[in-house]
Amino acid sequence: MNARQAPPDDWSGLLKKEEEALITIMKERALSTCSQMQKNYYECVKGRTLSIVWKCREEGNALNECLHRETSEEKLNDVKRKWLKAGKPRVGTTNGERIPVEFL
């Protein structure tokens, strides 16, 4: 490795604002990926109050596992790598409108 090149996972050139936007994108992707588990959980909790704790434990655990898997440090680093490889395209919002994410 050249002395001037940063190691593969050195994110020192990444602005905090950029990282926060990428984290938001990762979370949106996670919700999309886990949407079926999310629907199952919401169907279970509908009309319940205290019984949610024991009646919907399985659905809640499945949703949590999926979300944890999809929002891991590894997934975030993958999003960062793809974003950097795409040339740091603009991410975030403009006038409240979501900028399309085309680098993923």
From TrEMBL:
Q: Name one GO cellular component term.
A: mitochondrion
Originating organism: Bathycoccus prasinos
**What's the protein name?**
COX assembly mitochondrial protein
Leader sequence range is none
Q: Lineage of the source organism?
A: Eukaryota, Viridiplantae, Chlorophyta, Mamiellophyceae, Mamiellales
Q: Where in the cell is it found?
A: Mitochondrion
Provide the transmembrane region boundaries. none
What is the top-level taxon of the source organism? Eukaryota
Tell me one Pfam family matched here: Cmc1
What are the alphabetically sorted keywords of the record?
A: Disulfide bond, Mitochondrion
InterPro entries noted in UniProt? Cyt_c_biogenesis_Cmc1-like
What family does this chain come from, according to its entry? Belongs to the CMC family.
